[in-house]
Amino acid sequence: MVSTRRTQQERRAQAEAALLNAAAELVVEHGVRSLTLARVGEQAGYSRGIVTHHFGSKQTLVERLARATQTGFVPGLADLPPGLDRLLRLVDGYVGASGGAGTMNRAFLLLWAEAATASELAPIFRERDEAFRSDLRTDVAAGIADGDVRPDIVPDDVAIAVLGQLRGIGLQHLLDPHTVDTTRLRHTVTDYWRQALRVP
After folding, report:
1. CB atoms < 10 A from the CB of 123, how many?
2. Engineered SS bond to 142: which of 29, 83, 125, 187, CB 3.0-4.6 Å?
3. In this structure, what are the phi and psi dihedrals at residue 149, rounded to the nearest 5 degrees?
4. Which of 128, 102, 114 is nearest to 35 (CA)?
5. Is 83 left (phi over 0), alpha (psi -120 to 50) or beta?
6. 122-146 and 155-175 are packed helices; what angle lies between their axes, rounded to 10 degrees?
7. Is the backbone of residue 150 left (phi > 0), alpha (psi -120 to 50) or beta?
8. pTM for the whole structure
9. How many alpha carbons lie under 13 Å from residue 137 in its C-beta half-sphere?
10. 146 Cβ contact list (under 8 Å, min separation 6)
């Protein structure tokens, strides 16, 4: 009885992952306006009914996609204590990962950019941005408390600037990957923030 339930859960998780991957592919290939439950089902090889069963609405699908696409972009940070080191590793890892961003990460950046003019996306990405800024503020505040970050630094300002820079680099690379050398840029950007924040 228990193993049957586990199998059903695994099947459900597998179907959901396939549907989210299909949604990400559609966003990357055709933009968010092309995203419908029917097209996602067709892309994933499922019926629209299965998509509706898993998500219920396009809004819920986009919300789940936004969360899934941002998760784990820079692995290994959860094990680090808040502070300057974690912030710098995030910057370095994010810029580096932008160079090899997969479909899910590209979909996130496209959805994020579109949120400025799409009322159904704006609340989702405001929430995602605030969560990101909150982590960055925590790192800066911890760095100040540890004596690693200059005490005159304003955590809110740094969080806004870092978020804007990282997402902007990601979008530029998406638009013109041959111009944005993320391998070199990751060191430049990380060194900039190290020098800007660290106590002399």
Report:
1. 12
2. 83
3. -110, 140
4. 114
5. left
6. 130
7. beta
8. 0.82
9. 11
10. 83, 84
- Measured between its terminal Cα atoms, the distance across the chain in Å is 63
pLDDT in tens, 124-175: 889 889 999 999 999 999 999 999 999 999 999 999 999 999 999 999 998 8
Return d(Cα 94, Cα 75) in angstroms, integer. Answer: 10
Q: What pLDDT sits at residue 72? A: 61
DSSP assignment of 163-178 equals HHHHHHHHHHHHH-TT
**Rounded-to-integer distance, Cα 53 and Cα 48, Å:** 9
- Side-chain half-sphere of 118: how many Cα atoms within 13 Å? 15
Return the sign of the alpha-carbon dihedral for residues 173, 196, 76, 16: negative
